[in-house]
Design goal:
Layout: H1 2-24, H2 27-42, E1 62-63, H3 65-68, E2 70-77, H4 87-103, E3 108-115, E4 118-124, H5 129-137, E5 142-147, H6 150-163, H7 169-173, E6 187-193, E7 197-204, E8 211-217, H8 219-231, E9 238-241, E10 244-247, E11 259-262, H9 268-281, E12 287-295, H10 298-350, E13 354-355, H11 357-370, H12 372-386, H13 391-423, H14 426-455
Parallel strand pairs: 1-13
Antiparallel strand pairs: 2-4, 2-12, 3-4, 5-6, 5-9, 7-8, 8-11, 9-10
Length: 469
């Protein structure tokens, strides 16, 4: 009964491995389907001639920027209106908004990095640089501005008058506080920007039925909005989108619920678009594109070929080592390792995992780690056989006594992968993800698949040949 159960389990594992192998590389399977359909259609076989077998879905691997190319953009953030202590938070918020924005377009693992006051955006698979710019440029910068005092307004107007007639930048920069002339003389920036936005939706004015956009802030934004409206009762509060004045309503009373309306010369379509873009994420600070380029995959392809070659040679070396040192168990472990590779690649496709060079390095490293558990198990088995135990008992005790070491070592690896994935940059995250998936599948491969293969030899004539084990 136990033997029959083991055999059925082995059949299921082989079916799973074959399915994973076809998922990994469906080309030859689909060619076989085409040949079968062609043969059946050419023969007079009655009902069989009408049968058409379907192709296996060809799910492509998702490749990162370094392997398939894409767009590389650099933006300069304007932090002039942000206090020094808050600039780091503003740039982090900017990064999060851009990541959320490009993710809405299905970009595979976008890389968005902050370098001081610059934002670097890499979009894998987006070869049209204008498309990449449009995806990011559609995100509006929303801000609320309060009125300036008469004294502040006059200073700016005086500075503008002082700069009139100056034609070169050198002449302008010689004037003290020349930057003052670039500011809005009527309204000044506040801390309330789009980064505190909770939601935006299309609505209509109850009197005129004109379209407008209703917005709601999060808890922190609601407090800022209440402070702002309390301080400016009876005054105008200006709403700017991308540095353009959209609306400047008069504050009649303090607003404590964190809700407001943006009105202007909106059509139904422009109001819908504004609400959609604000929900995608209003930028906490203005940004300007200062560099753009299309990245080709040529270097990545060369590195990929070299990495795959190294991985194949490493896998071959592992198989030779296992067979020479551990003989038949080593051969069975190599079969389990091949199944492990097929299953892991299938998982990469199904999740899907974005493969970068660092991710492939994690995958190749996991292949080497996958045999660690087998070595521990086989060493324990040899000890059991030397002690005079039967082959079946040696297999069971070998797995049972090796399990604590396998569990602890792989658990430690998973902890490290979790730390890397949580705190590291995108490329290291790819390495941590593929390595952690490899560790999990390797446990299944060693503890389950290798065990099933060994149990198939319990009670057979081969277990009597001690030199095989």
């Amino acid at each position: 009964m136990a033997k029959r159960k083991t055999f059925i389990t082995l059949i299921l594992v082989l079916v799973l491995a074959i399915t994973a192998g076809i998922l990994d590389y469906p080309k030859y399977f689909n060619q076989g389907v085409d040949s079968t359909n062609s043969f059946l259609g050419s023969k007079n076989l009655g009902v069989l001639s009408d049968i058409k077998f379907p192709h296996f879905p060809n799910v492509p691997f998702r490749l990162g920027l370094d392997l398939q190319g894409g767009s590389h953009l650099i933006y300069q953030a304007d932090l002039s209106q942000i206090e020094q202590a808050n600039q780091g938070d503003a740039m982090s918020g900017l990064r999060d908004v851009i990541e959320r924005r490009v993710n809405l377009f299905g970009v595979a693992e976008p890389i968005v990095q902050v370098q001081k006051d610059r934002l670097i955006v890499e979009l894998a698979g987006i070869k049209d640089i204008n498309q990449a710019i449009q995806m990011i440029g559609q995100t509006p910068y929303l801000e609320f501005r309060e009125p300036r005092t008469q004294e502040e307004t006059q200073k700016i107007l005086d500075k503008k008058s002082e700069l009139q007639g100056l034609t070169t930048m050198e002449e302008i920069q010689k004037v003290p506080d020349w930057q003052l002339a670039l500011e809005d003389p009527n309204f000044k920036a506040t801390n309330l920007t789009g980064q505190y936005l909770k939601s935006a939706q299309l609505s209509f004015d109850q009197t005129s039925s004109k379209p407008l956009v209703s917005i709601e802030f999060n808890d922190e934004g609601a407090k800022l909005f209440e402070e702002l409206t309390t301080k400016n009762v009876g005054k105008q509060l200006a709403i700017y989108i991308d540095d353009a004045l959209i609306s400047a309503p008069v504050v009649e009373e303090a607003i404590s619920l964190g809700k407001a309306q943006i009105s202007g010369n909106f059509t139904l379509d422009t109001a819908k678009e504004l609400a959609r873009n604000l929900n995608a994420g209003a930028l906490p600070v203005p940004i300007t594109l200062i560099s753009q380029q299309t990245v080709g995959p040529t270097l990545g392809k060369l590195s990929l070929d070299q990495s795959l070659k190294a991985g194949f040679l490493g896998l071959l070396a592992i198989i030779i080592f296992m067979v020479v040192i551990y003989r038949l168990p080593g051969l069975l472990a190599s079969i389990a390792l091949a199944i492990y590779v097929a299953l892991l690649l299938g998982i990469f496709k199904l999740i899907p995992v974005t493969l970068t060079l660092s991710g492939i390095a994690g995958f190749i490293l996991s292949i080497g780690m996958a045999v660690d558990a087998n070595i521990l198990i086989f060493a324990r088995m040899k000890e059991e056989l030397r002690a005079g135990n039967s082959f079946g008992s040696a297999v069971e005790n070998g797995f049972k006594r090796a399990w604590p070491s396998i569990r602890d070592s792989n658990f430690n690896s998973l902890i490290v992968c979790f730390i890397l994935f949580t705190f590291a940059t995108s490329f290291i995250k790819g390495f941590a993800l593929t390595l952690s998936l490899g560790v999990l599948v390797s446990i299944f491969s060693a503890v389950f698949i290798t065990r099933i293969l060994l149990l198939m030899f319990v009670g057979t004539k081969l277990e009597k040949f001690k030199w095989l084990w």
